[in-house]
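Bench notes, afternoon.
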Amino acid sequence: MADEPKTKPRDAPASARQKTCFVVSEFGKTPEQSARTKQVLRHLIQKVLEPMGYSVVRADGIDDEGLITHQIIEHLLDDDLVIADLTNHNANVFYEVAVRHAARKPIVHVMTHGEQIPFDVANMRTVHYALNDPDLLEEAQHELRRKVETIEEGGFKAAHNPITAARDVSLLKESDKPELQEAGAILEALADIRSDLQSFNRPGSSSKARGISSMLPRAQSISRYAAGADPALLEVFMVWAMPRATERQLQVVSMLAEGPQPADRIAAKLDTSPATLWKETRLLRERGIVSASEGDTSWTLTLRLRTALETGNADIINALAKELRGK
């Protein structure tokens, strides 16, 4: 009798076979860089994923015969999970991330603590780690585990990403229903604003103030269709007032646009601790964007900021952003 296969086919449910995880990362051009990437693999990714029942492999660990590029693509398309290390903004890494995004399958981004997340994926939550800080590394392990558990609980469905969002906009615009066409037009206009913001944030870009002022009418027209706060105006303001804002800081501001929030609820939604949240939002408080005190049960955007945004006046908003930027 033939031996039973050790694993079942990949099209079987993940719960019925060993789960697979492919790691996307740079390999390093120097021995020191190479050693760092292996430490991330061993002390963060494998340490978390292997006890959860995953077979973890990186491109340099593929043993099968055949063209390595084809095998990488197969892993990106077929594996249950992909972990992508965006550290140093490696071009090959972002190509592979785009392939996974297009496949509409779950992916988790990780990055060295303190590095700036690229604009196009800034709205996707990223696990920040530090190999030289045991506390931050342990926190990253916990956060990565929580994200993977959430993916599993959701049936391995992928979160929205820039590629799926663009596809969804196209489908809405092509709909026969007027209300869906209008929704597609609104989402497309918001995407245009984000694209403009990205260009203004590049080194050497000309007159950010004039460019942002020119976007305000579009943001205001879009906001008429949105319930609650005006996310487009707030995004314009944040890019001008804090061009180097971290992902966590932008997420806090976005949450507070919906109204006052308890600190512990904000921390829970962002998969972090209140103490870490307090440290990471210091600049938001110092620049008069967020009103809060340590342990406060009600964080909110400052009254001055809310009033400026509610006016919709480009001069008022730009003046306040310029003032806060100079602090």
